[in-house]
Amino acid sequence: xxxxxxxxxxxxxxxxxxxxxxxxxxxxxxxxxxxxxxxxxxxxxxxxxxxxxxxxxxxxxxxxxxxxxxxxxxxxxxxxxxxxxxxxxxxxxxxxxxxxxxxxxxxxxxxxxxxxxxxxxxxxxxxxxxxxxxxxxxxxxxxx
Length: 144
Hints:
This protein is α+β, with helices and mostly antiparallel strands. It contains six helices and three strands; from the N terminus they run αααββαβαα. The chain is elongated.
């Protein structure tokens, strides 16, 4: 089964061109890691290669600006190492921030805090602040 899949991926009529492009991008990525300064290489990655143009995605505008300054040198380095590279384009592609959990954990009020808030609410005239404190006390979990 694995041989059939591998043969399909490598065949020209199958996904051969996709696999070849993926291998090329992997080679460019490893080469880029050796060319780029470490701090910039960690904040950017090779995104694509087409018609002699290497596209690099940077995680921020600051990283992109620094890489744009280095683009001619990067292109020369890629060319010296055997890749046809006429240009290096830098684009900003920020990392996606993972979604935070929308469930909250209820933190209980200590007995002392509950008493002090109840005393404060009792000393206030009828107002939105007093009703907010009363709602907070009614809904909050109490620590024993």
